[in-house]
Design a protein that fits this description.
The chain is of the alpha/beta class and 467 residues long. The chain is built from 21 helices and 11 strands. Helix 5 runs parallel beside helix 7 and helix 8 packs antiparallel against helix 9.
């Protein structure tokens, strides 16, 4: 039986025994096991054993052979890798071969990597760039890499921009990343969100989770046209982008909507809101991260398939819509998520960790909620998952279309702060009425303000930042 211990023993004896072991293997799975468990290779290991494996019929074995050659210091292996690269068709294997050439960090390989920049596959080009950045102070390398900022592929452009053209002296927020302003904490403002956001400072919100009003599907959301509706959302999320902290998240819950037909001689109209909204968000500077599907029980949705059920004629099939989308976006930044996480102290990170039982797929089965006051209430479980997965304890969560305030109540129950705006007085009053019976709104006093009062609060707030 071949074990990791046996592989280590043979490896340390040199090429002979290991080569013999590999040569007699006919099972690809066994060869892969050996190659994956070689680990560190001794300095006297010349890599001969991997040469024939670069010609193997199975791509995974060729890839692992190249990966192990990259661990060696023998410069003679570069010629072997080049020959393999010229004949290779598998992108993953080609990428690993280029990686092996780059990891040698040998100035003699510079021209090889510069030539690879002409490859048609952007993944191969990116790998060559990675190898060349080791020589980023070399004028020839700089002269060849900088023009790639105009490369047709967006990944190549992004890498080059970050390395050579990024403005690292841009103005930073006055606040530490983990903090926000006291005048935003646990506040509900009754006014048009666009008017309210004028008073909110840049980079003060950690997470936005909201469900915009559906186009002309409710009495409180009437727009002259669908384009006017999209323009309104464009304005809201453009301002949301401004007030969001670097690298933090926006989650928009929405779905296609049907506007009923005028009469039987006309058709109803279905508007794909999440798909039409997406290009606006990307243009604003949001990076698309995930799409989460909220799956509801069929008994909870309006029947659309009744007519089809009667005659089952093709073309008339209209399935019941049992899903909504949670579109997940991150404010674009050149910094990785690790930077956001490292901004928090270890105690906060530990206390904010998500407990066992978290959702592992992008399909969330959650029953909807219904309310006499509001016809489209967020389920608490939906809010709970989003807030736990995309924020830390002590963060501030924003909902520009607060409705009955579920985002705020859930945020507070999870030891976050909330900032809500709601234009409709009936919903504002409903949230206010809950302060008498709902402890979640009372544990830390919630301020219910008009726009004028909110402005006065900002002016009179002398407490600065912090908790």
């Amino acid at each position: 039986m071949i074990t990791k211990e046996l592989i280590t023993e043979l490896k340390n004896k040199g090429n002979g025994d290991l080569s013999y072991l590999l040569d007699k293997q006919k099972d690809n799975k066994t060869i892969i096991f050996i190659l994956e468990n070689l680990g560190y290779l001794p300095s006297n290991f010349d890599g001969t054993v991997f040469k024939t494996l670069l010609q193997h019929d199975y791509g995974k074995i060729r890839l692992l052979a190249a990966k192990n050659i990259a661990k060696l210091t023998n410069t003679d292996n570069i010629e072997i890798l080049l020959q393999a690269l010229q004949n290779e068709k598998d992108t993953a294997v080609k990428r690993e071969i280029v990686s092996a050439i780059g990891r040698a960090k040998n100035i003699k390989n510079k021209q090889i990597l510069l030539n690879i920049l002409q490859d048609n596959d952007p993944k191969i080009v990116c790998q060559a760039i990675r190898g060349l950045l080791v020589f980023s102070n070399d004028n020839e390398v700089i002269e060849n890499l900088k023009p790639l900022v105009n490369h047709p592929n967006e990944m190549v452009r992004t890498v080059i921009y970050k390395e050579f053209f990024s403005n690292t002296t841009s103005k930073q927020s006055d606040l530490p990343h983990t903090e926000t302003y006291n005048f935003l904490k646990n506040v509900v403002v009754n006014d048009d969100v666009l008017k309210v956001l004028r008073y909110v400072p840049d980079e003060s919100i950690h997470l936005t989770f909201t469900s915009p009003p559906y186009y002309n599907a409710r009495d409180y959301s009437i727009y002259a046209s669908y384009q006017d509706y999209l323009n309104f959302l464009d304005s809201v999320f453009k301002e949301t982008h401004r007030v969001t902290k670097e690298g933090r998240f926006l989650i928009v819950n929405t779905s296609p909507i049907i506007i009923p037909r005028v009469s039987r001689s006309h058709s109803s109209k279905r508007y794909p809101i999440p798909f039409d909204l997406h290009p606006y968000l990307i243009k604003q500077g949001w990076e698309f991260i995930d799409d989460i599907v909220w799956l509801k029980p069929e008994t909870s949705v309006k029947n659309r398939i009744g007519g089809f059920m009667q005659h089952r004629k093709p073309l008339a099939y209209k399935p019941n819509a049992v899903t909504e989308y949670l579109m997940v976006y991150r404010k674009q930044t050149e910094k990785l998520l690790d930077w956001n996480i490292r901004s928090y102290d270890q105690d906060t990170v530990e206390k904010s960790k998500v407990a066992d039982g978290y959702e592992t797929t992008n399909v969330w089965k959650i029953d909807p909620c219904f309310n006499k006051i509001h016809s489209a209430v967020f389920p608490v479980e939906l809010c709970k998952r989003v807030i736990q997965y995309y924020s830390y304890k002590g963060d501030i969560v924003f909902d520009p279309f607060a409705g009955s305030g579920t985002v705020g109540k859930t945020a507070k129950s999870l030891d976050r702060f909330f900032f809500l705006t709601e234009q409709e007085k009936v919903y504002f009053d409903y949230m206010l009425s809950k302060t008498k019976t709902n402890a979640l709104f009372n544990e830390i006093k919630t301020r219910f303000l008009t726009l004028e009062q909110f402005n006065e609060t900002i002016i009179n707030d002398t407490n600065g930042t912090g908790n």
